[in-house]
Specification:
heterodimer; A: mainly alpha; B: about 500 residues; mainly alpha; two-stranded antiparallel sheet; 19 helices; about 80% helix; globular
C-alpha cells in the first residue's frame, strides 16, 4: 500500500473514532489527528502530483483545522462540564456500524462519477473523501449531543475539503478562502450556541429541545 | 460613477456601516439613525446598479468573479426595495422590544450590525459569477443571521438558532458537492481553473459539459440550496426559525434570503436546462418538489394557531409556488416564477411586519387569543388584511397576478394535472388563511390588549409595502417587465 492510500484509510478510521468515541476530550483529540492526516494528504499530493497550491492548503489547514478549531472545541469543553455523551440514536455500538456501512456504500456508488472529472486521478483518497463526508452527515443524524454534532460538521468539512483538493486544487484562491472562512465561523457560532444550550437546558442533548413543534 | 465602481460600493457600504455601528456608543437613538442611513445608502446604490441592467446588459468586476445581469438585477431589487423597508420598520420595532425589557440596547446594536453584514452576504450571493463564491456567500447568510434569529436569550431561541445552523449547513454541504462536480465537469471542457468556476463561461459551454454529471449536479444543488430556500422535505428548520426571531428578522429571512437561495437554484436550472440534458429533466424535478412543498405547507397552515408560524409555512408554500413556475417552465412559466419572487417578497415583508404590530398589541402570537383587530387598531388591520388577501391570491393584489400567469402558462403547455393539483393546494391554503383571518380581525378581543394602534412612523414602511403590493397587482411597470423579460431570456438561454 502506498503512502497516499495508507493515509486515506487512516483518515476513515480516525473519522469513525471521532464519530464513535463517547468521551468528548478523546473525540476532539481524534479530530485533531484526523485534521493532521488531512494536512499530510495535502502535502503528499502536492509532491506526488506536482500540485503546488496544495502545499499552501496544507499550511493553512495546519493552522486552522489542526490548531484553531480544536482550540475552540477544547475551550467549549471547559465551559460545559460534561465528559461524555448520551446514548445516540440506535445505540453506541450499532450507530457507527450503520454510519460506516452506508457511508462506504454511498462513496462507492458516487466516486466513479467524481473520479471521471478529478484533476488528481486517485481512487482511494476520493473514496475516503466521500466516506468521511458521509460519516459527518450521519454524525448529525445519529448523534444527539451538540458537541458531537459540531465534530460531525468538522468531519464532513474535512471530507469536502479533500474532495475539493482532488477535483479542484487549481481553482482560484478565493474559493478556498471563502469555504474555509465559513467553516471556521460556523464552528465558532456553533460552540457559542452549544454553550447557551447547556446553560438553558442543562444538557447537551439536542433531542431534549422540543419547544418548537408542529 | 461607473457601474463597476457601484458594484464595489454596494458591497462596501453595508460592511462599512456594520463597522461604524459596532464602534458607535450604545445609544439607541444614534444607532437607529445610523442603521437607517446605512440601509437607505445601500438601497440607493443597489437601485442605481439595477437601472443599468434593465435592458439586458452585463457588467463584470474583480476579474469576472462578480457580475450583474438582469437575472441578478431581479433579486437585487428584492434586497434594495423590500430590504430597506424592513430595516426602516426594525428601528421602531427594536424600540418596543427594549421598552418591554425583552432585550437591551446592546442586543439592538448587535442586531443592527448583523443586519448590515447579512445585507452584504445576500448582495454578494446575488452578484457572484464564481459559483464557489456564491456558495460561500449563501453559507455566510446563515452564519450572519443566526444571532439575528437567536437574539432573545432563552430555550426557544437557542433551539431555533441551533436547528437553523445545523440543518442549513448540512443542506449546503450537498450544494458544495454539486459545485465541485460542476467545476470538474466544466474544467474538462473549458480547461482553465478560473473560467470553469464562472457561471457565464459555464453557460457558454453548457452544451459540451457531460450530461450525466450535470444531472447529478442538479439533484445535489436542488437538495442543497433547496434546504436553504425552504423546499420540502428539508424545510423543517424554517417554521422554527422564522417564528422565533424578532419580526424584522423573520421578514428579512422570508422576503429576501429565501429568494437568494432560489437564485442559486435558478442558475443551476438554467445551466442544466441549456445543456444536452434539456429543460424537461429540470422542469420535472422542480414540478414534483414544488407540488410536494405546496401540499406539505398547506396542511400545516390549516392547523397553525401561532401567527408567525403560520406565515412561516406560507413562506414554504410560496417558495413552492416559485418552484412551480420553473416546473412549468418556458418563457411564461419562468417569467411568472421570477415575478412571484418579488410579489411574495413584498407581501411577506408586509405580513411579518404587520404581525410585529399585532404581537405588540395583544402580547401573544396565539391567534385564538386575538380578535377585534379592526376596532382596536384599524390601520394595522387594513395592512394585515392586504397582506393576507395578497397571500391568499385575491385579485387584484400582486400575488394573484403572478399565480394567474403560472396557471395560464401551465394550461398553455397542457400540464393539466399539475395545474389542477396546484389549484387544489392553493384552495386549501385559501380556506386555512381565511379561518385564521376571521379569528384575528373580527369579533370581540379574546385576550388582553396591551397597547392601542402603533405609531404612524412605525407604520410608514408598511404602508409603502402595501402600496407596492397593490401597484404590482394592478399596473404593469415597464422597467420591471423589461428587467423580468431579460432575466427570463438568460434562464431560457436566448
Amino acid at each position: 500500500m502506498d503512502v497516499l492510500s495508507f493515509l486515506s484509510v487512516a483518515m476513515i478510521v480516525v473519522a469513525l473514532a471521532v464519530f464513535g468515541l463517547r468521551n468528548y476530550k478523546l473525540a476532539v483529540s481524534a479530530y485533531v489527528v484526523q485534521a493532521f492526516i488531512l494536512v499530510l494528504i495535502f502535502l503528499t499530493l502536492s509532491i506526488s502530483h506536482d500540485a503546488g497550491p496544495l502545499f499552501s492548503w496544507a499550511i493553512v489547514a495546519l493552522f486552522t483545522k489542526v490548531l484553531f478549531v480544536p482550540y475552540i472545541l477544547f475551550r467549549l469543553l471547559k465551559k460545559i462540564d460534561i465528559e461524555s455523551e448520551v446514548e445516540p440514536v440506535a445505540g453506541f455500538f450499532v450507530s457507527p456500524i450503520i454510519a460506516l456501512g452506508f457511508s462506504l456504500a454511498i462513496a462507492m456508488s458516487l466516486y466513479p462519477i467524481y473520479l471521471k472529472f478529478s484533476l488528481i486521478q486517485e481512487h482511494i483518497p476520493l473514496i475516503a473523501a466521500i466516506t468521511v463526508f458521509m460519516l459527518g452527515i450521519f454524525g448529525f443524524i445519529l448523534r444527539k449531543s451538540a458537541v458531537k454534532q459540531i465534530l460531525a460538521f468538522c468531519t464532513f468539512e474535512n471530507g469536502i475539503h479533500l474532495t475539493l483538493a482532488l477535483t479542484a486544487y487549481n481553482s482560484p484562491g478565493i474559493v478556498e478562502i471563502g469555504i474555509l472562512t465559513d467553516a471556521i465561523f460556523a464552528v465558532i457560532i456553533m460552540s457559542i450556541l452549544a454553550t447557551r444550550f447547556f446553560k438553558y437546558f442543562g444538557s447537551l442533548d439536542v433531542s431534549k429541545a422540543s419547544e418548537l413543534k408542529g | 460613477m461607473s457601474i463597476q465602481f457601484l458594484m464595489i460600493l454596494v458591497l462596501v457600504v453595508p460592511l462599512g456601516f456594520a463597522a461604524l455601528l459596532w464602534f458607535l456608543p450604545t445609544d439607541e437613538k444614534k444607532l437607529g439613525l445610523v442603521h437607517l442611513i446605512g440601509s437607505i445608502a445601500s438601497s440607493v446604490v443597489a437601485l442605481m446598479i439595477i437601472s443599468n441592467v434593465l435592458d439586458g446588459e452585463r457588467y463584470f468586476v474583480f476579474g469576472d468573479i462578480l457580475f450583474i445581469d438582469s437575472l441578478g438585477g431581479v433579486f437585487l431589487t428584492l434586497i434594495a426595495v423590500t430590504g430597506v423597508l424592513i430595516n426602516m420598520y426594525s428601528v421602531k420595532y427594536m424600540q418596543w422590544e427594549v421598552k418591554k425589557g425583552d432585550i437591551g440596547v446592546k442586543d439592538v446594536k448587535l442586531f443592527y450590525v448583523l443586519s448590515h453584514i447579512f445585507l452584504f452576504t445576500m448582495t454578494l450571493s446575488v452578484l457572484a459569477n464564481n459559483m464557489a463564491v456564491m456558495w460561500a456567500a449563501v453559507e455566510a447568510t446563515t452564519l450572519s443571521s443566526v444571532f439575528m434569529v437567536a437574539l432573545h436569550k432563552g430555550k426557544r431561541s437557542t433551539e431555533s438558532g441551533w436547528k437553523y445552523i445545523v440543518i442549513c449547513s448540512i443542506g449546503l454541504a450537498f450544494a458544495l458537492y454539486a459545485t465541485i462536480l460542476l467545476y470538474g465537469a466544466g474544467h474538462a471542457v473549458i480547461g482553465d481553473g478560473h473560467n470553469a468556476m464562472l457561471w457565464t463561461s459555464l453557460m457558454d459551454n453548457a452544451k459540451l459539459i457531460d450530461p450525466d454529471a450535470l444531472k447529478l449536479v442538479f439533484v445535489f444543488a436542488l437538495i442543497g440550496y433547496g434546504t436553504k430556500a425552504g423546499l420540502a422535505p428539508t424545510h423543517t428548520w424554517l417554521p422554527d426559525v422564522h417564528s422565533e426571531g424578532p419580526s424584522p428578522a423573520s421578514a428579512m429571512l422570508s422576503a429576501v434570503l429565501l429568494k437568494c437561495a432560489m437564485l442559486a437554484i435558478i442558475r443551476f436550472y438554467g445551466l442544466v436546462g441549456n445543456s444536452m440534458v434539456g429543460f424537461e429533466y429540470v422542469q420535472n424535478l422542480m414540478l414534483i418538489i414544488s407540488l410536494i412543498t405546496i401540499f406539505v405547507a398547506a396542511l400545516f397552515i390549516l392547523r397553525q394557531h401561532d401567527v408567525k408560524r403560520m406565515f412561516a409555512y406560507h413562506s414554504v408554500e410560496h417558495i413552492g409556488i416559485i418552484a412551480f413556475g420553473f416546473g412549468i417552465g418556458g418563457p411564461l412559466g419562468i417569467f411568472a416564477g421570477l415575478f412571484h419572487s418579488l410579489t411574495h417578497s413584498l407581501t411577506k415583508a408586509l405580513a411579518f411586519c404587520a404581525s410585529g404590530n399585532i404581537i405588540k398589541i395583544y402580547g401573544t402570537r396565539d391567534m385564538r387569543k386575538m380578535g377585534g383587530l379592526v376596532k382596536v387598531a384599524p390601520v394595522t388591520a387594513v395592512l394585515f388584511g392586504i397582506a393576507i388577501c395578497s397571500l391568499a391570491g385575491v385579485p387584484p393584489l400582486a400575488i394573484f397576478a403572478s399565480e394567474f400567469m403560472m396557471i395560464k402558462a401551465g394550461l398553455g403547455i397542457g400540464q393539466y394535472v399539475a395545474v389542477a393539483l396546484f389549484i387544489i393546494g392553493l384552495a386549501i391554503v385559501f380556506i386555512g388563511i381565511f379561518s385564521h383571518f376571521n379569528d384575528i380581525m373580527f369579533g370581540e378581543p379574546k385576550g388582553e390588549i396591551l397597547s392601542k394602534e402603533v405609531e404612524l412612523s412605525a407604520n410608514l414602511p408598511l404602508i409603502a409595502l402595501a402600496v407596492l403590493v397593490i401597484v404590482f397587482g394592478i399596473f404593469s411597470i415597464d422597467s420591471w417587465i423589461s428587467l423580468l423579460n431579460n432575466a427570463t431570456k438568460i434562464v431560457v438561454g436566448i
